[in-house]
Amino acid sequence: MTDRRPFLYDTHLELGAKIVPFGGWEMPLQYATGTLNEHLKCRNDAVVFDVSHLGTVRCDGPGMFDALQSTLTNDLKKVAPGRAQYTHLLNEDGFVVDDIIVWWLSENEFDVMPNASNTSGVTSALPGVDVTAERCVLAVQGPKARERVATIDPRFAEIGRFHVTRFEYAGAEVRVAGTGYTGEDGLEIAAPNAVADQLLRALVAAGIAPAGLGARDTLRLEAALPLYGHELSLNSTTLEARLGWVIGWDKATFRGRAAVEAERARGCARLLCGVKADGRQPLRDGASVIVNGVNAGTLTSGNYSPVLEHGIGMGLLKGDFTEGTPVTIELRGREVPATVAALPFVRKAK
């Protein structure tokens, strides 16, 4: 089966993108300046990512609040229309089917945003319609994101963190959320295909550099944000990833609740921990983590931190290790000295 191309594929090529397969899509990995420069541009200024490979399941109509509330882990009563919420979809055994952002637009209107490869699974669990092909999603991230996007339309810059709004731009309705996946301030814009190219070009003209999936991954790793298929999967749980705050313990039910309650009662066999290498060696997922001569688990994510200038990684480890605990990372036949690190590795710019 051929990977899908985002609507803006040709525009990305024109902007100098290197394209790679990702989650069933052909997406930009990096542009001419490279991943390292794109990463640092996001930490110090602003970049734009095309994240149109993420799904949009539109749940619009009577009963949608109850459908989402009884299926997803988080409690929608903690928020209200005009807000976004991070949540999980579990199976009945308590493992993570997907991690999701819900955009709550009006009383019975929600845009549910699953990961690229999981859209069909989310659609089968919720009474919504997959509208992914009808829109593009552009994520503007960085400490100067609002300053720069305000030069295009000040309404973009007015969206609060984890708030959602919509308004007309270039004759079409755009939906905007104060969300992102870099650890920096920013916003995500869902624009109909008809105006997406115009919007992307306007963002670039405003000094917002295009960035690819390479920088998006190193940024989210520095911020210790989980990636589905790595920290979260059908073999791991919300509690193991230290994300118990996305569980609505006070609401009546959600899918997988009995399994999660049993896990909470007995305690987690593994917990997500961060590690940092003593040197610049990039760490990689799948590498074994040795603590006191015992294999404590494997890294779920690893790379080089452009900000810290050494290797970093996260892993689900057997034990709750304190910061500074010495460990050894077995990496492609090498033993890399490292220590347990506090998460996140890098906090967003002031």
Q: Any descriptors?
A:
9 helices; alpha+beta; Gyrase A, domain 2; 350 residues; 6-stranded mixed beta sheet; 19 strands; Elongation Factor Tu (Ef-tu), domain 3; 3 domains; 6-stranded antiparallel β-barrel; Alpha-Beta Plaits
Coarse structural class: alpha+beta
Question: How many strands appear in the DSSP assignment?
Answer: 19
**Biggest β-sheet strands, sense, barrel:** 6 strands, mixed
Q: Let me know the average pLDDT.
A: 96
Q: How many separate domains?
A: 3
Corresponding CATH architecture of the largest domain: 2-Layer Sandwich
DSSP helical segment count: 9
The CATH topology of the largest domain is Gyrase A, domain 2
Q: How are the strands ordered across the major sheet? A: 10-11-12-9-3-13
CA radius of gyration is 20 Å
CATH superfamily of the largest domain: Probable tRNA modification gtpase trme, domain 1
Q: What general form does the structure show?
A: globular
How much of the sequence lies in strands comes to 25-35%
How would you spell out the order of helices and strands?
HEEHEEHEEEHEEHHEEEHEHHEEEEEE
Can you identify the CATH class of the largest domain? Alpha Beta
- Through-space gap between termini: 45 Å
Low-pLDDT sequence parts: none
Quaternary state of this entry equals: single chain
| Amount of helix | 10-25%
